[in-house]
Design goal:
heterodimer, A: 392 residues, alpha/beta, 7-stranded mixed β-sheet, 5-stranded parallel β-sheet, 14 helices, 44% helix, elongated, B: 351 residues, 5-stranded mixed β-sheet, 10 helices
């Protein structure tokens, strides 16, 4: 494992690389990343192939799921989409906006797309990046750096990926000794790193979030895809579906069938014991509510590969993830908005075919069912702009 | 039937010789299943949905276990509601729901709690017991039963003080001064959270030799979270009680019986929780519903014959692992990182 001295040495190398970027025209950098995204978004290209080969082992997803997730997730991340995004953001923050002398990026989770944007953002502002990869995804950041070095050695020198033990406080001190820190993770993780971030430094935190669907039975297949991709572990994975009360049971039945079918094509990956225990507990508790006379139905695969619980009401309940979906009956639009309002601080996306204006009170991504896991490049993880928070 | 069952379980609890006695346990567990199947309608329907009926179940391991969380939403009684004499409630969470254990008698509840305390917290009093001198100075950091009438923990501590405490024993939420002045061994008991508060305030003292600590419960949702190892090191530093004299109690409102660390009784063997003979603890693989493979963690599932008035088989929310003839409950894996960026919704709900 890395030592604090190695992290400091990397910081010094990055300072030199940052100096070399100082006079580099922005257009050249944007063009480089536009080319890089084009290479990454090709399902037959080197980078997706290498991720499909390596990510399942560390992250616990099935190769089929990684393949499909990458193909869909990167589909719209074109070079032109990047150019438009940068142009739009620079209009707001100023054409000559610059990043900090160094940005330390603490990565989390095992879904590659947020890693790519977290690494790319500071570099677009010519801020060198020191990144700590997530323990469950030690590959995406390295591949990103490698692809950048191949394409543009000058930019490639401005990123270093350094793994170190999470409980090594000396390494943490050296790593977080930066003017800007980007941290992705649970509230607990973000809170824990605040003690390492120096006074006056910028902390850009991306907390964990969740998504829901507002759909009818006709969207069961599309919803099953949104649930199955990345095994429902992403912040754009729907954990609950709200449905007209008259159709809720039909949706539950159709969704159970669709999840069962989807499982054949996109097998669920690793299920940690604690998650299996949570699913078992939620299924058994739902079965007991049903036994006690509540209007609840429970469907699930015996091996816990998927589960659907149709609840009696709109009240949110624990979501154990790993393809466990609750269907909530909704009596009226007011009731729906009330249910969503209780989730608002944590809500990332809503899959629905209702007009997006319906959800105007919530600052979330609204999209059609089946496309939740394919966000546009401009949607950066939890709705923050890509560049503005990283600019000096 | 119920009175006969209660009498036979009470008789077992009264025996000083702790023998597992599998045939006796099986017979009582199956009779109790018959009784609870017949008298607790939600439980009967739950079992029927699993194809488990008194006719089909011949092994106590096949008696369906009810998840402990159910007690927050469903009244689980194997007796008429109007016969309820006591209701214990779980501590509140931000989800607002509290689990409830309804009892129509306290006889089993009280009979089940003292033998394990004597055996695992005061094993050195067993010889004194024969001479009628089995008393110890006990200080409890918890609300009194009067202050918290629906707390099973306060009730348990109250019974412990009545049965085993000396005249200078009692409840005290801030015992720092009492501890400084202690000249004879003390048993200091409380929740882990209460210990954190005490240790933050207390100056270092060295409790007299022979003192011991009993801690129970966790810190979830209480802001500060430390590991059990850190807590024990802190207790040793501030109170002079080494980890070998600190006993963790594992219990829950939904259960009549409790489980204690073996360290005081069997100091030469690994720390583990040992089950009273009228209980069985299984570690269940949540994916298969069968016993977890040796060495693998499993859902702690408890069959407690003291639960005659509710249901005997309870699936806890905890993962545990086997240690020799006992078990321990697993905390969160240190350094474990999430695979995704979806919030764990139970955290969001504060459940």
């Amino acid at each position: 494992m890395t030592s604090a001295a190695e992290i400091r040495a990397a910081g010094e190398r990055l300072a030199e690389a940052g100096a070399a970027l100082r006079d580099r025209p922005r257009g050249r950098t944007v063009d480089a990343f536009a080319s890089l995204l084009e290479a990454w978004r090709d399902p037959g290209g080197t980078w997706q192939k290498r991720l499909v080969e390596t990510l399942p082992g560390s992250a616990g997803f099935s190769p089929e799921n990684v393949r499909e997730g990458l193909a869909r997730g990167l589909e719209h991340w074109t070079g032109n989409a990047l150019r438009e995004l940068v142009s739009r953001e620079l209009e707001k923050i100023g054409e000559d906006a610059r990043g900090f002398p160094r940005t330390s990026v603490l990565l989390a989770g095992s879904i590659p797309m947020p890693t790519i944007t977290s690494l790319m953002g500071p570099l677009l502002l010519h801020s060198p990046v020191l990144a700590k990869p997530a323990s469950r995804d030690p590959v995406t950041a390295d591949l990103f750096a490698e692809s950048l070095r191949d394409l543009d050695p000058e930019l490639g020198a401005a990123i270093e990926v350094i793994p170190f033990a999470s409980d090594d406080s000396q390494c943490a001190e050296a790593f977080f000794d930066a003017d800007c820190v980007v941290a992705t993770g649970s509230d607990e993780t973000v809170f824990a790193i605040t003690r390492f971030v120096r006074a006056g430094a910028r902390l850009v935190a991306h907390g964990h979030r969740l998504s829901v669907a507002v759909v009818g039975p006709e969207h069961a297949e599309a919803l099953a895809l949104d649930v199955a991709l990345w095994d429902q572990l992403g912040c754009l994975s729907p954990v609950a579906a709200y449905c007209d009360a008259a159709d809720a049971e039909r949706l539950a039945e159709a969704l159970a069938q669709a999840l069962s079918e989807t499982e054949k094509r996109l097998p669920r990956g690793e299920l940690p014991t604690a998650s299996a225990a949570a699913i078992r507990r939620e299924l058994d508790e739902a079965a007991m509510r049903r036994a006690a006379g509540r209007d609840v139905s429970v469907r699930g695969d015996e091996a816990l590969r998927w589960a659907v619980v149709r609840e009696a009401d709109a009240g949110f309940r624990p979501a154990p993830l790993h393809r466990f979906v609750r269907v909530h009956p909704i009596e009226s639009r007011d009731q729906l908005l009330q249910a969503l309002a209780s989730l608002a601080p944590h809500l990332a996306g809503i899959a629905t075919d209702l007009p997006s204006e319906v959800f105007a009170p919530f600052c979330v991504r609204v999209c059609t069912p089946g496309t939740l896991q394919a966000p546009p490049l401009a949607w950066h993880h939890d709705g923050q702009p890509l560049l503005a928070p990283l600019a000096r | 039937m119920r009175q006969d069952l209660d009498a036979r379980v009470l008789a077992w609890m009264a025996e000083a010789d702790w023998r597992a006695d599998e045939p006796r346990f099986t017979a009582l567990a199956l009779e109790l299943f018959c009784f609870q199947f017949a008298h607790c309608t939600p439980y009967r329907r739950f079992c029927e949905a699993r194809g488990a009926t008194p006719d089909s179940v011949s092994d106590w391991r096949d008696v369906p276990a009810v998840p402990a969380g159910t007690f927050k939403e469903v009244a689980i009684r194997s007796f008429p509601a109007e016969h309820t004499c006591k209701t214990f409630r779980t501590s509140g969470t931000s989800s607002g729901r509290r689990g409830e254990l309804h009892l129509d008698t306290l006889a089993l509840y009280e009979a089940s709690l003292l033998p394990p305390i004597r055996r695992f917290l005061f094993p050195d009093l067993e010889s004194a017991r024969a001479e009628g001198g089995e008393r110890f100075r006990i200080i409890v950091m918890a609300p009194t039963p009067r202050e918290a009438p629906d707390s099973s923990l306060s009730h348990m501590f109250g019974r412990m003080l009545d049965a085993l405490g000396t005249s200078d024993s009692g409840f005290c939420m801030k015992p720092a001064r009492l501890l400084e002045q202690a000249t004879a061994p003390v048993a200091l008991c409380g929740t882990a959270f209460a210990f954190v508060h005490l240790l933050e305030d207390a100056g270092p003292v060295r409790l007299p030799d022979g003192s011991r600590v009993m801690e129970t419960g966790g810190f979830k949702g209480r802001g500060r979270e430390i590991s059990r190892g850190e807590l024990y090191a802190w207790i040793e530093e501030k109170l002079g009680v080494p980890p070998a004299r600190i006993v963790n109690q594992y219990g829950m409102t939904e259960l009549g019986s409790q489980f204690y660390d073996s360290v005081l009784r069997e100091p030469e063997r690994p720390r583990r929780k040992l089950a009273p003979p009228w209980t069985r603890v299984r570690l269940v693989d949540p994916e298969t519903g069968r016993d977890a493979m040796p060495g693998k963690p499993g859902l702690v599932t408890i069959h407690d014959l003291a639960n005659t008035g509710s249901v005997a088989a309870i699936q806890t929310a905890d993962l545990g692992h086997a240690i020799e003839d006992g078990f321990d409950v697993l905390g969160r894996e240190p350094g474990a990182e999430e695979r995704g960026c979806s919030i764990a919704a139970d955290l969001m709900l504060g459940a």
